[in-house]
Predict the 3D structure of the following.
Amino acid sequence: MKYYRTILQSFGVITLIAIVAVFTTPSLAEPFARGKLEIVSGKKRHLFVVELAQTLGQREKGLMERKSLPLNTGMLFLFDNIEIQHMWMKNTFIPLDMLFADKNGRIVTIAHNTEPQSRKIISSRGPARYVLELRAGTAARLVIKVGDRLRFLGNESEQR
């Protein structure tokens, strides 16, 4: 009898752990809203369609597992706090340019051609609120530089 009680108690603990894990783990399958963003570089404006990583789960998932990123598309990470932001390329199969921007959208750091699947931490050089990930080479091709600005034009639901 003591043996069965131990098994039942163990089963109860395992069940409780599983329930807590399900309700406290952020969903990595959350769909991303889409929007339009432009980068203002001098008198030039470069338009992009971006997916929005707004929640913790979306920011954790990012562009992981993707095999390609179409031209003039990307992902905009929106952080709750304005601070040094840290990114990495774990489980990301495509090289990216990462543009870190402050609360006003001014680009403070550009990480060019990041290494796919790397666990190396890529950080902003100053406080940032946003990180825009674009296909590698985009920043160089469009001559985007520190000091240029990101201007969010709204998400798809606002544009309808």
